Amino acid sequence: MSKGGLNYRLVIFFIAIIFAVGFSLPTLLQTQKGPKISLGLDLQGGLHMLLGVKTNEAIKSKMKSIASSVKFFTDNNDIVIDELRINGDIVTLSLLDGDEEKHLDDMLKKIQGLQVKKDKLKYTLSLSNKEKIATKKFAISQAVETIRNRLDQFGLAEPNVAKQGVDKILVELPGIKTIEQEKRARELIAKAAHLQLMSIDEKRTDQANSMSEDEARSYGDRILPDSRTPNVKHIVKAVPILDGSMMSDAKVGFSNMNQPVINFTLNSEGAKIFGDYTAKNIGNHLAIVLDNKVYSAPVIRERIGGGSGQISGGFSVKEAHDVAIALRSGALLAPVKLLEKRSVGPSLGADSIKASMIALISGFVLVVLFMILYYGMAGVIADIALVVNLFLVLSVMALFGATLTLPGMAGIVLTVGMAVDANVIINERIRELFREGKGVAKAVEKGYSNAMSAILDANITTLIAAVVLYAYGTGPIKGFAITMSIGILASMLTAILGTLGIYQYLVPYIEKTKSLPFWFGVKRVK
Amino acid sequence: MQIFSKDKIYDFMGKSKAFISVSIILILASYFFLFTKGLNYGIDFSGGTIVQVKYDTKAPIKKIRQSISKDKMFANASITEFGSPNEVIIRFATSSDHVSTDAGDKMKNLLEGTGNFKIRRVDIVGPKVGSELRKKGIMAMVMSILTILIYVAFRFEWRFAVASVLALVHDVSIAIGAIALFQIDVNLDVLAALLTLLGYSLNDTIIVFDRIREGISETRDLNLFNVINDSISKTLSRTLLTSLTTFFVVLTLFALGGEIIHSFSFTLLVGIIVGTYSSVFVASPMLKWLGFDLKDYKAKQVAKEKRKIEKDKARSMYEKGMM
Question: Which of A40, A214, A248, B241 is the 20 to 30 Å CA partner of B87?
Fold first, then answer.
């Protein structure tokens, strides 16, 4: 053992103090710059959702768009087909013109992952298994991307959207203030924003309100409600002219009557399809369909070039704004469903912070006083280590950009109780050595070495529990595991290395004063 | 200040049968409560919905019940005060998977007219997530016990590992019994508390075991009882001190930490008491009953030492040969 004065342990301890205080300041003072601990949603309030994706719907919608392109192709090449039907994830059609068989087959071959079964001239189209898996996968990553885009444009601070596991989506929205705001965000996320331009089945318009879904399907039609008055039905061809995937922009505008509307622009491919279609169907009705509701069904008066259109349907300004966002960021290929939701109001979060701060401070004061009462100066030294430990936990969390949750706060509170443990073990060992009549320097040195194996084994086992907790825990529980682990590791540095450094520095003074009650709270035994 | 007199050796092992009987009674009682009362699974594990509502004045529970029972979905909802008379938790077993409209929205409409209120929390856990969380929770429990078993077996001896794991099972059983008895909501935080308890209680046990290991190598006494008594007595003040400081802290968490953290701190409070008890009175006698034999152990240690010396010798000869 050194003869007092500065030693390497003390130097490391000082560096640790500077590091700990330096990196916790941005968090404690809430400065603009520097690494800070962010508060979890349970403390600052916000919305946490785990969403699932109904991937089967993605396959269905893919088949629908394949049907659209078959229709476009046959119309343009004057190939006569009949009974083009969409049935879940299967599309059937019959080719009337046998001479065109090769022509149609060549076109179908070009569609990736399409399985074609032919019974003479009756075609059954479906996706191959490989393509189905790929489509499902794509639907999930597309949903993540789409929801992220929508929330980015919604104007909330730091939305977090991430894929979780194989088929789940995690959405975290801090900074949601009211339940109304939360609902609006949820509606924006869930909106399919599936825009379709469809043709009204002119032959059967008068039966729209009387026909059943099944009957309509047998004609290759669908019955869709009107957006303003859901009792009014429209009968449209099931195969759409084109869909929102060919849209390039959507903006909120105002109609002549000063009603909010959404103006959309199609990309060049969409514009061509739309132009060709309108040219051929002058006098017929066109249905503008959003999420399976007919917003308007105007008559086509002339060929519409340029590829722009308008959705009007009695939106409020807010609604129009959200719909435009949803359309711009693209449709959800597959609808999402709610698996888990946690929403905490900001006032509740503030209450939790207050309550846990009170617990932290009072627990801290109790432990600090107790240690001084029981161990005298040795208790003060342990308390110094404890304070540094707390700062270290804060600084390491800030550096890693960790999130502090309510269970995380509990973890810090618990660390206060457990971090002094190492010093309790050491002090008890030192007292034992005094009883055996050892001198101060010898007692301190042997006390530390005797205590070491117990402290290490005990801390490592607790660390194991914390790591397992992290691996299998979810959300806020992970936060608890993190603060616990950092607390344990930091306590090894402060409680073992730091306090030993202090003792080594102080030993000559302690030997001079010979006041064991003052330094260790114990009388020397002869 | 000192609590325990300096050199007194207490006879723990002499009374070990009495202590173990207390433990067995407690464990049996725990399982009795577990099977008769059952665990009160919260929505994290059973799935369902909770809505936390805070009123400006005392919450009108009767009125709330009347208002929400208009919707069949909430017919079996339970309404309980939460933390203060102004605040209630409405809980029901169903959960909808609609993203855009959920139970919280419906609840808000139904509660209109019951007073001035604010919805502060809406938690929805779907049945699939609930069962997944339960599976993960059990996995976490089993995995941590297994890894601890391996670590202790590696650092000490297999009997130490088995004894400490039995003590852990003892602690967790009694804590779960208390949870069943007081019908605490079992949520993720209770699971976290139980896992913390595993680490904490083991911590205590390891420190006693470490002392026993040290005692064995230092003494010529071949009586295991004496070694154990000596080791427990020497670590007693540490065990109690650390338990006390941690107990203080958890007590403040329990008393001042707010309603949300209540079940967590309750579990830990019970856990710290039984954990301390088990590391002193249960884990060590277990060593004897598992057939731990001092002579054997010492002989093995000596053999180990010899092997090591021989290995070193062989290595140094080999190295010399290489030179």
Answer: A40
Of B121, B244, B260, the CB nearest to A345: B121
Q: Tens of pLDDT along B111-143?
A: 888 888 888 888 888 888 888 888 888 888 888
Q: Is B1 helix (H, G, I), strand (E, B) or coil?
A: coil
Q: Nearest CA to A33 among A516, A400, A398?
A: A398
Tell me if A424 and B191 make a contact (CB, 8 A cut-off).
no
Average pLDDT, rounded, for chain A? 85
DSSP B171-211: HHHHHHHHHHHTT-EE-HHHHHHHHHHHHHHHHHHHHHHHH
Backbone angles phi, psi at A115, to 5 degrees: -100, 125
Give the DSSP H/E element, type plus range, for residue A163.
strand A160-164
Residues on chain A touching B51 (C-beta within 8 angstroms): none
Which residues face B117 on adjacent strands? B55
Residue A208 has pLDDT above 80, yes or no: no
The ipTM value here is: 0.82
Contact yes or no for A462 and B237 at CB 8 A: no
* B6, B151, B257: residue with CB nearest A525: B6
What pLDDT does B176 receive? 94
Instruction: Kindly state whether residues A54 and A36 are assigned to the same domain.
Output: no
Contact B118 A418 (CB under 8 A): no
Antiparallel, parallel or unpaired: β A38-39 and A403-404? parallel
Q: Is residue B310 part of a domain?
A: no
Q: What is the pLDDT of residues B3-55, one digit of tens each?
A: 665 567 888 888 888 899 999 999 999 999 999 998 888 888 888 888 999 99
Question: Rounded to whole angstroms, how far apart are CA atoms A506 and A522?
Answer: 17
In angstroms, the Cα distances linking A405 to A165, B65, B299 are: 22, 32, 51
Residues B288 and B194 in one domain: yes
Distance between B270 CA and the closest CA of chain A, angstroms: 15
Instruction: Give A12-46 pLDDT, tens digit per residue.
Output: 999 999 999 999 988 888 888 888 888 888 888 88
Number of domain units in chain A = 2
B257:A356 CB<8 A: yes
User: Which CATH number covers residue A511?
Assistant: 1.20.1640.10
Q: Give the domain range for residue A85.
A: 46-138+157-172+329-342
B13 inside domain: no
Contact B192 A469 (CB under 8 A): yes
Q: C-alpha B209: how far from its chain's center?
A: 20
Among B188, B153, B148, B151, which Cα is nearest to B171's? B148
Residues of B in contact with A336 (CB under 8 A): 99
A157 three-class SS: coil
Q: Are residues B58 and B203 in the same domain?
A: no
In this structure, what DSSP letter does residue B291 have?
T
The C-alpha atoms of residue A297 and residue A277 are separated, in whole angstroms, by 15
Packing angle, helices A406-435 and B262-281, rounded to 10:
30
The reply to whether A29 and A85 lie within a common domain is no
B170 and B94 together in one domain: no
Distance between B319 CA and the closest CA of chain A, angstroms: 32
Please check whether residue A186 touches B, CB under 8 A. Answer: yes
Alpha-helical (H) ranges within chain B are 16-36, 43-46, 61-68, 103-111, 127-155, 158-181, 188-218, 224-256, 262-281, 283-289, 294-322
- Asked if the Cβ–Cβ distance from B241 to A521 is below 8 Å, we say no
Instruction: Identify the bridge partners of residue A86 per DSSP, sorted by sequence position.
Output: A91
How open is the CA angle B23-B25-B27, to the nearest 5 degrees?
A: 70
pLDDT band at A75 (very low <50, low <70, confident <90, very high): confident
pTM, entire model:
0.78
By C-alpha distance, the chain A residue nearest B138 is A472
